[in-house]
Amino acid sequence: MAHIRINKMLKDYPIGRGKFTALKSIDLEFEKGEFTGIVGPSGSGKTTLLNIIGSLDVQTEGLVEVMGNEIKTLSAKQSSRLRSEHIGFIFQTYNLLPVYTVYENVEFPLILLGMSAPERKKAVLDALEWVGLTDKIKSRPAQLSGGECQRVAIARAIVKKPDIVLADEPTANLDAENSHHILKTMRKINEELGTTFIFSTHDAKVISYLKRKITLLDGKVSNDEVINGG
Amino acid sequence: MILKLATKNILGAGFRTWLNIFILSLSYFAIIALQGFFVGWQDDASREMKNWDFAGGQYWQESYDPYDPFTLEDSHAAIPEDLQKMIVEGNAISILLSPATIYPEGRMRNIVLKGIDPNQCLIDLPTKHLIDTDGEINCIIGSGFADNLNIKEGDYIVLRWRDKNGTYDARDIKIAHVFSTTVLTVESNQIWMSLQTLQEMLDLPNEATIITIKDEMFNKEISGWEHKDLDFLLIDLTNMIQAKTMGSSIMYAILLFLAMIAIFDTQILAIFRRRKEMGTMMAMGMTRSKIIQLFTLEGVLHAIMAIFMGAIYGIPLLRHFEKVGMQLGTDAKEWGLSGLDDALYPVYGWKLVVGTIILVLITTTIVSFLPTRKIAKLKPTDALRGKMTR
Hints:
Helices cover 34% and strands 29% of the residues of chain A.
């Protein structure tokens, strides 16, 4: 059974008295361990698709099933639980909590899961080791570079060992060197932990790291190809 | 979990947090300090009024009405047997009242003559000065009234009264002593003399208007006499202090209001400034209700931390007030308020402290919660974009 199944999905937004169709006729399936990029120009619906997969938003029509949960039928509490237990998010602007240290930011999802303090400590240190930031655990986001902030965001996304990591333009704010470093880290986590990565991008540097590339154009899938031998 | 996160958030907010906490702590301090003075005043005044006037309660002759001077001439009766027994045992004193006129410096002034046993020791009135000497009628008078009449110890004034048959008589009386008290009910417009002398002057042997008793619990029904307990006797004082307290509450309501505006403003600002943070928390799986709890608790934590900050500077200051009191100046007695001496000493009971803490905590919780209701409608996607959901 597919990890994520999307069938005849449509997403509208009301605009004034009319509506804007952000996504239409989307049929996609994602298997465990994929490293997939959703590419396309701005406004093509990449972020909307990620939001719906991440149960932050719901489709207008069609079916979206994530880890066996039909997104549209979930209550707010069930959506929160799905995100808390199975999904990690990485954002373009990192979205780190400013008053927390690196350690506390990475620890946050584990607190929501109700994990014990010793378990949390081990998991946080492991995650920070994955992204190479064990020397910055006491720093606050304002004291870090953009690349370091994004690595903290990755650590925060993977610390609970989620089944799926959704990344929205993770390299858009980074220079080439940091982008490659981040992508290498994500790919390494994907290969060693088997975490499914789906991320939106229009950054050409990213393409060489992808196993699968889905191209969105005007809210529709215009191309879906397996690359690098998948 | 929520508590830990809330603590981190408010400590992380730095100066803004400490400013809010300081303003809130001022509210605690002001409410406790002001209320402490009123409680202190009420305690002092009640104690003094018991010591100087009411003891454990009074029996009033049934016609007696302190607010109607025309009843004074007729409000006297023979002392009932039960009360007479208590008087003999030293557990009660009888007081006879009569309207009279004095002529200090040639001016006429209506007063109330009060007769009391010079040997009584139930109330603090210095009645030993009333023992008549050398055929003179010795009287005592409060210092406020003496100042008002411009008379002093050793002065003589003309007294005119009417006996029970309506016959006028007049004599010189001697001001044997001028006493100082904060209790206006034993001072204003009244002159004290020996009970026996007054009974003879009025031709009312063994009669009285008021019997003051020692035992607060004694309330036996006695025909022709009405028992007045301390709650009744102190009601004017209690009402006056309550009215003053209500007046002063406006001041601390303003202070509390300012503190609450600071909290409300902080919450509103936080909700608008931290939308992305909320979106991130939602993306990580935090429910809206938990986020509401988190933001409300952050507000409440301000109030809790304000307790500690208030304690740091408040306890020494309140203790200092307790020791030195609030100096009211020498004119305080002229304000016409019982129990007010040169200084007012506050009393801080645990009820006042706990009550104030609860009041501020409840108000802060409500004020912290109100703005957070917006979060309930917030969509995670809007929050992540830094937008408020309409």
